[in-house]
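FW: tagging you since you asked about this chain on Friday. Here's the raw sequence from the shared folder, copied in full. Didn't touch anything.
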Amino acid sequence: MNEITINPRPEMCKFIVQHINLLKNNPVLIADVGSRYGYNSEWEAFDLCMKAICFEPDIEECALLNSINNPKAQFIPTALYRAKGQRTFYETKLPDSAGLYRSNMNFFNRLLNRDNAETINERLIDVDTLDNALEYENIVGLNFLKLDAEGAEVDILQGANLTLSDPRLFGVLSEFQFHPEINGSPSFWELDKFLQSQGFRLFNIGTNFQSRRDMPYPGITDYFLPNGERFYAYTEHGQVMGGDALYFRDLLLEQNRDIAEALNPLDIIKFAAFFEIYHHSDAAAELIIRYREKIKSIIDFNELLNKLTPEISGKKLSYDEYIISYFHHDTSFNRLDSKVSPTKDIDLKPEVEDALAVAEIKRKLATYRKELVTMLSNSIPKDITTSEALIMIIRMIESGHNGTVRSEVSNALVSVEKHIMANKKIKAYLDAKEPSPTN
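HL: got it, structure written out here
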């Protein structure tokens, strides 16, 4: 069994939630469809700056969860589908397996977990669409959607056109099944095709396995029903049956251009926080760097990048230090025991001091590339060090920020680049590519 990876220490998310209260008056909104036992624990990273709207067809389960009086969540006893109406609901021996699709026992009888999917009762229930259910609850601007509906995930998505078209929906976490023989529901390939058509792309996938009953493998854990009766579920090996798929919008795709333009600075930061929570800090950093001009009105993007940056051998680095160290010829970033380990201890000062200055100037040059900076080279004293010169250039660029665009800027940047690369010491440590300027 392979699970979706969760970041145990989302430092950037913690920073924007607890230290600067950036989300205090604009919490993240999450819809959890199929929320038996409660919502996903990873969302607790948002603390009180989240609201989970949870849908679960089991009325008693919803009442129990609502009795906890969690201010962050509301549990609604509604079954969702592609259209409003009535559907047959199949109750199973294991309540977790109940749903709108009847298990195919001709197939399940071959598996170790055959008894769990056995239908013990069926009844007609009212169903509605996700769009309607969110409208009833006055929920607008959903940020994340989780689906666990025992095969009805694609059906529910087909009834969520308004929700999926909202630019503020960043990601979808959905259960899926690989094989139509399980219960005749849409398979993973149909889920993937549908979400791709909506601008989402697969970022991670978790899978589970089931053994044949004739030669069962060891189980992942011991499973018991509330009455103490043992039951069988996922095994260490066997045929892959299904799992969970994590999708996010890729805002840099042409398909999502209009969606990206519609997002405000806080939307971008929320999106990056979800990336970080699901262990995609690389995608979070890309998002922050690409849209730094948009978010700088509410926060310094360098702070966000520094919070995203992982440690090296227990040493916390800035984003620039991490990039320099990553491409350093004496540093190995191969994974050993889930820790990033250099081949030897790295002393970042003074050895890479100039390189760090270069990383900073290159990032700021990209930010101010279209600003008029006249005669840079003639304004720099010839008796100062390279790092001092670079810092002076940064200050001149920032003080000359006047919104005027001239072709001389490009020539000045070329001159600066030559000045940087003429220093062999800097060149030896500088492998970071200059970020593309914002258009």
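FW: The two ends are 44 Å apart (CA to CA).
HL: agreed, and The first strand starts at residue 28 and ends at 33.
FW: great, closing this out.
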